[in-house]
Amino acid sequence: MSLIVQKFGGTSVANTERIKNVAARVAQYHARGDGVVVVVSAMSGVTDGLIKMAKEIMPLPNEREMDVLLATGEQTTMALTAISLHALGIPAVSLTGAQAGIVTDGVHTKAKIQNITPKKIRELLAQRAVVIVAGFQGQTDDGQVTTLGRGGSDLTAIALAAALKADLCQIYTDVDGVYTADPRIVPQARKLPEISYDEMLELASLGAKVMQSRSVEFAKKFGVVFEVRSSLNDNPGTIVKEETRNMEDVVVRGVSLDKNQAKLTLVAVPDKPGVAARVFKALGDANLNVDMIVQNISHGSDVPVTDFSFTVDKPDLLKAQKVIDGLKADVGFGRVIATENIGKLSIVGVGMKSHTGVAGKMFDTLAREGVNIDMISTSEIKISVVVELAKAESAMKAVHAAFIG
Ligand code: ADP
Ligand code: ASP
Ligand code: MG
Question: Does any ligand 2 atom lie closer than 6 A to the CB of residue 136?
C-alpha cells in the first residue's frame, strides 16, 4: 500500500462532470489499497471572479478580507469532490487548510507555510477514508485565514507530500506535462519526460504557470519528486527531480514568457549612496516582489542623476506606485513612468553552465525578428529579456525555433 498525494487544478474540477471524473480516478487508487490525499483547486475562473468582485468595490481591498474571500473557492470544490466519492460508495472527508493542520505566517494573499501537523489527515487515512484538502489556503497561529499566492494549490500538494512522506505526488492539470514552452502559444513545443528542480523553478518563476514557483522551491528543499500529468488521459507526464548528469547535454530545456509583469521607471534619481537601498527597502517592507532591476550610468554634471527601472508583478503595480509616490519628496526623483505593456521572455537550461554563445544566439534571433530588447538579466542557467508585449509571443516562437526546433 502506498500513500499518494494527488492535486487537481482548476480546469480538472471546472464543473461537476469533471469532478466526477476526478472521483473516478481517485477511486481506482483507493481500490488498489492506496492511501489517497486529494488536493483541489477552485473551479477554473472562480478565483479570478472573486478578485474581480472585490475590485469592483474598491481597487485595493483589504488583504485579510481577500483571503477570507478567496479561500471559499477551494472549499466549494473540496465538498463537491467528497460528495462525488460518496456517490461511488467511497468514504471521503474534506478538510479546509486549517483543519488539515497547515499553519502559515500572516502575510495575507502570499503567506508562507510555517509547519504542517497532519494529525487529522493521518487519522482519516487510518480509517481508509480518502482525504480531500482545500488547496491554496492555511491559517496563522491565531486562526486567521490565509492564502498561499496564485497557483498555491501546487504548494499545498507538495508540502503535504513532504509532511506525510508520501510515496508519490501527482499534479494533475490540463496539459500532458511540462513542455519546452507553453503549448498554447508554441504549437511545436514538446513534452519533456523529465526536468530538474532548478530548471522547473526558473521556468515557473519566469512565467510558465504550469507549476507555482514556490511549490517547486519547496519540492527541491525537501526532495519531493513529483509528476505533472493530465487529468484528461492516462499518458505519462513529466517527472520533476534533482538534476542528473546527462541533463547538462541539453543547452536550452525550455522557453517561457511572463506577461504578468509591469515596469516602473524612476526618472532623474539622485546618484548617491543609499538611494536604491531606500527605494527597495520600502518596496520590500510592503511585501512587494521586485524582479529585474536596471540602473543606467548617471548623467548631468552638477548633481548627477540616473534613471532606474524595475519590474513588479502586474497585480502589485498600484501598490508599488503608491509606495514610490510616498518616497518622492524624501528621495527627490523626477517623474515615474509605469507601463504594463511588457513581456519577459526567458530561456532556461542547466546546459548553459557548460555551453557558450547562448546569449549571442538569443539576441541575434530577436534582432532578426525586429524585436527591441528593453532589459536583460542572466543567471547561470537562464537568460531573460524584457520586450514589448505586442511582439512577445512571436519573439517566443522564434527563440523556441532557434534553440529547440
Ligand atoms: P491548473 O489549473 O491545473 O493548476 P494552470 O492553468 O495553472 O493549471 O497550468 C497549466 C497551464 O500552464 C497549461 O494549460 C499551459 O497553457 C500553461 N503552461 C505554460 N507554460 C507551460 C509549459 N512549459 N508546459 C506546460 N504547460 C505550460
Ligand atoms: N485557486 C487558486 C488560483 O487560482 C489556487 C490554484 O488554483 O492553485 O490561483
Ligand atoms: Mg496552477
Answer: yes
Give Cβ neighbours of residue 82 (< 8 Å, ≥ 6 apart): 92, 93, 94, 130, 132
| C-alpha–C-alpha distance, residues 49 and 68, integer Å | 14
Q: Which residue's C-alpha comes closest to atom 5 of ligand 2? A: 151
**235-266 per-position pLDDT tens digit:** 999 999 999 888 888 999 999 999 999 999 99
Cell numbers 547538462: residue:
248
Q: 265 near 307, Cβ under 8 Å?
A: yes
Q: Which three cell numbers stand for residue 306?
A: 540616473
Strand order in the sheet with 102-104: 113-116, 102-104, 137-139, 145-147
First to last CA, the chain: 43
What's the pTM?
A: 0.92
- Residue to mutate (ligand 2; options 46, 150, 174, 215; most atoms within 8 A of CB): 150
Contacts of 185 (CB under 8 A, 6+ apart): 257, 393, 396, 397
CB of 178 closer than 6 angstroms to any ligand 1 atom: yes
Would you state the pLDDT for residue 300?
Answer: 63
Strands 194-196 and 145-147, bridge-based pairing = unpaired
Q: How far is it, in rounded angstroms, from Cα 217 to Cα 346?
A: 19
Residue 185 CA to ligand 1 centre (angstroms): 11
Question: DSSP character for 233?
Answer: S
pLDDT in tens, 12-47: 999 999 999 999 999 999 999 999 999 999 999 999
Query: Given this model, what pLDDT does residue 247 score?
Result: 84
Identify the CA nearest to 135 among candidates 154, 117, 150. Answer: 154
How far is Cα 160 from Cα 153, in angstroms, rounded to an integer?
Answer: 11
355 backbone dihedrals φ, ψ, rounded to 5°: -125, 145
**Angle, vertex CA 6, rays to CA 4 and CA 8, nearest 5:** 175
Apex 366 CA angle, 362 and 371, nearest 5: 150
Contact at 8 Å (CB) between 191 and 367? no
pLDDT in tens, 303-312: 788 998 999 9
